[in-house]
Write a structure and sequence with these properties.
The protein is an alpha/beta fold and 301 residues long. It has 2 domains: 215 residues, Rossmann fold (3-Layer(aba) Sandwich); 61 residues. The chain contains 9 helices and 13 strands. The longest helix is centred in the middle third of the chain and has 16 residues. The protein is globular.
Length: 301
């Protein structure tokens, strides 16, 4: 896989505060990654390094093969960025604002108008930004980040202020970019939103990258139990089958059992599926919230 963003042994200090401590990871094209961590974990510092707004004290950052903090960062026009709190000139209209950023990226302003429609702002394109709601300003920020078909898109809490319908549209746009080969990195606290969308997760804690990988890889590393919920037929008499060995917790309709790994899960499913008293099976793998809490506890120990 070609690497579009490479972070190697990066450290960044703010006085006595160690914002980043030996962080290393690679991001590739055509993948949506999630950067998660509590406030102060180092997420925004990492994004600033990738944008070239600050320079690492130690280690190296490369974006599209270049040092973003170098004076001549020619790949800058191929980056898109949406900050957590967008701020635009309140006296300009939405169309004028987008035209300004289009000129900065050296693209024709007219090519930006479809983006206003894509984020649901065409009806307000000629209104002053000062009259926009927070959600509308966030939409304008997203349109700005999408200018010029970015190859690397960095998003800091991007769905703040967006209604559910626009959140769905937002992720549809990101999927289109990813499928077009872009590298998409989302820094967010909305773990439930990212669980079924992020193909790669980076977990930060107090400046350290404590875990990274796909959800399947993180679950394998964490070794958290898998919950298997089994509903039993009413005629079962409330007595669990012998193969349950009296384990698990009783529920109004059956039993919830905890299994330590995939192999035990599959063995349990084979037995349960062959028992006519089992009317329904639900599997609840550890969520991203569960994994996040686990790795933070492990790192704090």
């Amino acid at each position: 896989m070609t690497v579009t963003v490479a972070v190697n042994g990066v450290e960044k200090d703010y006085g006595a505060v160690k914002a980043l401590r030996g962080v290393s990871f690679d991001l590739g094209p055509g993948r949506l990654s999630a950067l998660v961590g509590h406030n102060g974990a180092g997420k925004t510092t990492l994004i600033k390094l990738m944008l070239g707004l600050i320079r690492a004290d130690r280690g190296a950052v490369r974006v599209l093969g270049e040092d973003p903090a170098a004076g001549e960062f020619s790949a800058r026009r191929l980056l898109g960025y949406l900050p957590e709190n967008v701020a635009f000139n309140a006296a300009l209209t939405g169309r004028e604002t987008l035209a300004f950023y289009a000129r900065l990226k050296q693209i024709k302003p007219a090519s930006a108008w479809p983006l206003l429609d894509r984020v649901g702002l065409m009806h307000a394109a000629d209104r002053r930004v000062g009259t926009y709601s927070k959600g509308m300003r966030q939409r304008l920020g997203l349109a700005q980040a999408l200018l010029g078909r970015p190859r690397v898109l960095l998003l800091d809490e991007p769905t703040t202020g967006l209604d559910p319908a626009l959140r769905q549209t937002f992720y549809e746009i990101l999927n289109e970019l990813r499928d077009d080969g872009a590298t998409v990195l989302i820094s967010s606290h909305a773990l439930n939103e990212l669980e079924d969308r992020a193909e790669h997760v980076l977990i930060m804690n107090r400046g350290l990258l404590v875990a990274q990988g796909t959800l399947a890889e993180l679950r394998s590393l964490a070794q958290l139990p898998i919950r298997v919920s089994l509903d039993l037929a009413p005629g079962a008499g409330g007595v669990p089958p012998a193969w349950m060995n009296g384990s698990g917790a009783a529920t109004p309709h059956g039993r919830v059992m905890l299994v330590p790994d995939e192999a035990r899960k599959m063995a349990l499913l084979r037995v349960a599926a062959s028992d006519s008293r089992v009317t329904n099976i639900e599997i609840m793998a550890p969520t991203l919230d569960d994994l996040y809490a686990h790795f933070l506890r492990e790192n704090s120990a």
